[in-house]
Amino acid sequence: MPRDRFRLDEIAGSAGTAAGGERPAEQAGLLATARELEWLAADNDVGPSEGFEDRVMAAIAGEPAPRPLAAAAGAARRGRPAGIFAALGDLWRVAWTGGRPLAVRAPAMALVLLLLAGSVGLGGLGAAAALGMLEPRKPAPVVTPSPAVPAPSPGPTTGPTTSPTPSPSPSPEPSESVEPSESPEPSGSPEPSESPEPSGSPEPSKTDRPASTSKPTPRPTASPDDEKTPKPTSTPHPTETPEPTGTPGPTGSPDD
Amino acid sequence: MGARAIDAATDPRHPPVGDGIAADEEARRVVAAVLGGDRNVFRILVERESRSLVRTCYRVLGDFHEAEDSAQEAFVTAYRALGTWRGEGPFGAWLSRIAVRIAVRRAGRRRPVAWIDPRPPADGGRAEGGSVSESALAAAMGGAPDPAHLAVRAERAAAIRAAVAGLDEPYREVVALRFFSDLSLAEIAAESGRPLGTVKTHLHRGLARLRRNLEERGVA
After folding, report:
1. pLDDT per residue as tens digits for the range B144-160
2. Is residue B101 domain-resident?
3. Strand, helix or coil for residue A82
4. Is the pLDDT at A252 greater than 80, yes or no?
5. What pLDDT is recorded for position B19?
6. Tell me, what's the pLDDT at B186?
7. What whole-number distance in Å separates Cα of residue B191 and Cα of residue A2?
8. Contact present, A177 and A169 (Cβ < 8 Å)
9. Where in the sequence is the domain holding B22, given as residue range(s)?
10. What string of DSSP letters covers A137-180?
């Protein structure tokens, strides 16, 4: 039983009981309900059985030490994010509110400060990473030759003895093929990665002598030099002419 | 039942004036000692609060064994969270709040059962509550319980418990703490961190809803 039986003035001033505006019937109903509850409470006045305290202490003996850090670790082990956040909130309260021994508050303070420092550090790193990602990406120089470039066959029209650069594509130095007239290969490109196929570079600007390849490849059918290129349509795309034998044009280029 | 006789004069829920402050100070010392590593000191609080805690759970649940289980779970839960007790309000109020939550949750999981108590009914709420020894004495003096009357009383109690358990929060908690856990509204306000006016409003609305619920059940 409460110290006093319920009276209506106990809830005076609550919302709904403004200035005695409640009807007597409603007041009687509230009082009757309170009496029902008091009857139930008085009718159920019991105490614990023998040995209850021992059972409670036995159950507590298997529990970890009641520290907020242990609670957070337990929540983390159980994989409960809500429990982790609740434990962190408890840590904060233990650290910064009074009424607790220093032996309890000091570790909580240390852990809270550690977590704060870690959060600030991670936040800074995250911000720096985000800013770095927002910056425009600079073009990366191509320094490595494409390893997928097959060794071009010298071609049937050029003998290995006549060509000073039998494999021009792997050579990153354009100076090794500075003489296009001597080079039977149309791919005089200084960057082998952009002309993987030895049959010809579709981009004239990449060649040492643009005139040597620009005429047949961009518009082969409209070019007036079509007469000099036996099969200009067979070499618009490098992939279409994997075999250099099908493109006799390199050596027959107008520049030669 | 297995219940122990209760002497109202030594009920820790009704300490003499001035003992409440001493009890709170003792609770703070005990909690500090437990947090310092001496867990056996917790027995002091268990022995001091177990009677009121089992009684509170029994009022919510109506089953003695479930009430003891709930009270034990409340002690263990409180022990785990002992570092979070602010020490500003009574330790018993904090513990009762935990116990009421556990008991109400347990009551919501099972079907309502009308447990028939062979004891004679208490005096309409005027007496402090009949202990087992008092009940036995009353029975010996000729107040043998009528089985029909016992059944009606048990059904009435079960309906009230079910109606309380069916209340929404926070009305359920306030009603249970006020009437089953013997806390004053000021203690409930201090423990829950709500303003006293808010607690009054919650109790008022809770009683009104409970009234309607009991009328629908044909109890009121």
Report:
1. 667 777 777 778 888 88
2. yes
3. helix
4. no
5. 55
6. 86
7. 16
8. no
9. 1-110
10. PPPPP--S--TTPPPPP--TTS-TTT-S-S--TT---GGGG--T
Q: Which residue has the higher pLDDT, A73 or A217?
A: A73
Q: Is B218 left (phi over 0), alpha (psi -120 to 50) or beta?
A: left
| DSSP category for residue B41 | G
The mean per-residue pLDDT over the stretch A70-92 comes to 68
Report chain B residues whose CB lies below 8 A from the CB of A34.
Answer: 179, 207
**Count: domains in chain B:** 1
Task: Quote ipTM for the complex.
Answer: 0.71
Query: What does the alpha-carbon distance between residue A65 and residue B27 come to, in Å, rounded to a whole number?
Result: 18
Higher pLDDT among residues A36 and A255, named by residue: A36
Indicate if the pLDDT at residue B35 is higher than 90: no
- Residue bearing tokens 């390849």: A213
User: The dihedral of CA B83, B84, B87, B89: what is its sign?
Assistant: negative
| Distance separating alpha carbons of residues B12 and A96, to the nearest angstrom | 32
B88 to chain A: closest CA residue:
A99
Domain membership of residue B24 (yes or no) is yes
DSSP letter, residue A246: G
**Structure-block tokens of residue A113:** 């400060």
For residue B14, being part of any structural domain is answered with yes
Angle, CA of B99, B100 and B104, to the nearest 5°: 120
Residue B71 Cα, gap to closest chain A Cα (Å): 9
Report CB contact under 8 Å: B125, A39. Answer: yes
Q: Determine phi and psi for A12, rounding to 5 degrees.
A: -65, 140
Interchain pair B201, A16: CB under 8 A: yes
> Between vectors from CA B203 to CA B115 and to CA B192, what angle results, nearest 5°?
95
State the Cα–Cα distance between residues A45 and A48, nearest whole angstrom.
11
Output the domain CATH number for residue B102. Answer: 1.10.1740.10
DSSP state of A238: G
Q: Could A49 and B4 be called an inter-chain contact, meaning their C-beta atoms sit closer than 8 Å?
A: yes
Q: Which among A48, A36, A8 has a CA at the least distance from the CA of B180?
A: A36
Q: Where are the alpha helices (DSSP H) in B62-131?
A: 64-80, 91-109
B139 assigned to some structural domain: no
